[in-house]
Each structure stands twice: as C-alpha cells, then as structure tokens.
Amino acid sequence: MASDVRAIEMMLKTDEKARRSISAWIVQLAKKIHEKPEDVVWFFEMRQLIDEVERLAETATDEELKEWERELEAEQSGIDRPIEELLEMGRRSFKKFKRIEVKLRELGVV
Question: Residue 93 and residue 29: Cα distance in Å, rounded?
Fold first, then answer.
C-alpha cells in the first residue's frame, strides 16, 4: 500500500490532469456524504497519522518511546488555552472523525 501511495504522490506532483481528477473525486465524495471536501481530506490525513502512531506504538522499543517523549517535551511551548477548551476541541474533532468514518464506511470507501 505504501508503494501505491508513493506512486500516486509522484503522479500528482507531475500531472495536472491527475490533480484535477483527484480534486473532482474528493468533491463528489464529499457531496455524496454531505461533508465539506476539506473535511474529507482532513479525515484521510488524520487516519494516516493515527495509523503511523499505532505502527510506532507496536514496533518501538521502550527506549525509543522514552526518547520520543523527551523530544516532544523539548518541543512543547506554553499553551495559551484552558484545558477545558482543549478537551472540547479534541472531543469535537473526534466526533467529526467518527461521523465521517461511518459515512465513508457505509459507502465502502474505508
């Protein structure tokens, strides 16, 4: 699957007609499930990130996970929002993800 994705990425970088075709397909898919095209793209981006985190969690050693945790802590800067607001944003994003997932699953897309 990863090689298929890379092949399509290369095609989309060089072929304008392919980009337009994919864009039209995303718009039609979004219309079919009554969502915004950018939300459909967001769904697939989030799904890819979730898959990557799950893969890392399964294959990473404890030492690698601790190193990753140290890197994340070093990168973190102050967050200017209250925890309640952050939790609400996460809850809304999770609901949106699940809503789109159900619709795409009914169509047989995922």
Answer: 20
Write the DSSP string, 17-81.
HHHHHHHHHHHHHHHHHT--HHHHHHHHHHHHHHHHHHHHHHH--HHHHHHHHHHHHHH-----S
Q: How confident is residue 45, by pLDDT bands cut at 50, 70 and 90? A: very high
DSSP secondary structure string for all residues of 38-50:
HHHHHHHHHHHHH
CB distance 53 to 72 below 8 Å: no
79-92 pLDDT per residue, tens: 788 889 999 999 99
